[in-house]
Amino acid sequence: MMRSSNSFLPVRCLFLVLLAWFIILNSTAFPQTKREQKAKAKQKTTAAEEPPPPEGGATSTSHLALPFKRLWKYLTDEASTLAPSIDNERIYLPLAGGRVICLDRETGTLRWISDPGGIISSQVAVGEHSVLIATQKISDDGSEAGGSVRAVDKSTGLTVWVKDYTRPFSSALVLGPNRIYAGSADGSFYSLNFTNGDVIWKVDTQDVVRGRPLVTPNAIYFGSDDSMLRAIAPDSGQLIWKYQVSGKIVGQPAIDEHAIYFGAGDGYVYSIDFSTGKLKWRSRTGAAVEASPVLVGDLVLVSSLDNFVYALSRLKGDRVWKRRLENRITSSVIVEGDANLVAPLRGDYVAVFLNADGRRVNLFKLDKDTEIVADPIFSNDTLVLATSDGLVVAKAMRPKDQPANAKK
């Protein structure tokens, strides 16, 4: 007699029940799809990138202490070590390939591209209606073939005028009333006409002038590779005084009602009486100082190539505090309110410290394997960073649970 197939049903049902229980028990341990695996990996990454809490319960009223949220990123494989420039509407980014691109400040949309020819030799200078681009010309054999300055319309990117020079400009172009001031690879400091680039006067030094000048109504102060800080008359270029140190002077000096402050390649920060050129004090760091000092309250904040940020007494130069970071610091600290922001060169983060004692109150991390390659900018709560991957723009955002009219 043949057995009915229905007799196998209990066995089949038991097998299906056991299989179902096996799947349920193991589903909590192993994601069943690639999407779930990516989601879990993303959660771990996000948790790892959350900034650490402020040190020692430090608090700040500065906008630099607010969480930074990335607004947009402009990708490029032509990252330049020259800092971008900004105005109220646009960001001007020099590229290593010799072009300058103009991006919308809010959205990152490309507005125009300018290709002046050669290599961009200094940060773009922003005027009222035009921007100025300094370039180094290259001959067919790869050698230097002079320099030029090109004025470009801010809205269209079209050339307004261009002027050629025997050697390229090696310092930042700084704008004054109808003037352009800049140091040159020929060892001279120039005053140029803003409307056409013609030379008005020049001051000879003994070496390349890389130092960004400080332009005031009464004097222009600039450093040179000949280790000299000079004060000259704005109208004529006549020398007022000069002060010799033992290392190159690259950073822009800072000034108050009593003195002028600057750092040098000899590792010292100097305070000089701005009317007489006499030394008031000097304070030693552990390496060359290429950044510009920043004055806040009774302090001088300055970064050094020894990886430290120093807070010095403005009166005597005594050290109030110092703070070590993981990378060299070539850019100036950015001060807003009671805090300052530091962006180490080739680092993947920016850190914010209290001016008073150097405790950290904020940290903003970039994507993995992304490095900062130029000086940062902070303007109207917007942080602009030139990185190895392109331009990163972030904004200091107030927490959602804090009213917009809360006391700062």
Features:
five-stranded antiparallel sheet, 2 helices, 41% strand, disordered C terminus
- Report the radius of gyration as a whole number of Å: 28 Å
Distance N terminus to C terminus? 93 Å
Counted beta strands: 33
> Biggest sheet, in brief?
5 strands, antiparallel
Shape: globular
Mean pLDDT: 89
User: What's the number of helices?
Assistant: 2
Low-confidence stretches: 1-9, 22-48, 403-408
Structural category is mainly beta
What percentage of residues falls in helices of 4 or more residues? under 10%
Strand content: 35-45%
How would you describe what is shown here?
The chain has 408 residues and is mainly beta. It contains 2 helices and 33 strands. It is globular. It starts with 8 loop residues before the first helix and ends in a 12-residue tail after the last strand. Residues 1-9, 22-48 and 403-408 have low confidence and may be disordered.
Short synopsis of the structure:
With 408 residues, the protein is mostly beta strands.
What is the topological layout?
Elements: H1 9-27, H2 34-49, E1 68-75, E2 85-86, E3 90-94, E4 100-104, E5 110-114, E6 119-120, E7 125-126, E8 130-138, E9 144-153, E10 159-165, E11 174-176, E12 179-183, E13 188-193, E14 199-204, E15 214-215, E16 220-223, E17 228-232, E18 239-244, E19 254-255, E20 259-263, E21 268-273, E22 279-284, E23 294-296, E24 299-303, E25 308-313, E26 319-324, E27 334-336, E28 339-342, E29 349-354, E30 360-365, E31 377-379, E32 382-387, E33 390-396
Antiparallel strand pairs: 1-33, 2-3, 3-4, 4-5, 6-8, 7-8, 8-9, 9-10, 11-12, 12-13, 13-14, 15-16, 16-17, 17-18, 19-20, 20-21, 21-22, 23-24, 24-25, 25-26, 27-28, 28-29, 29-30, 31-32, 32-33
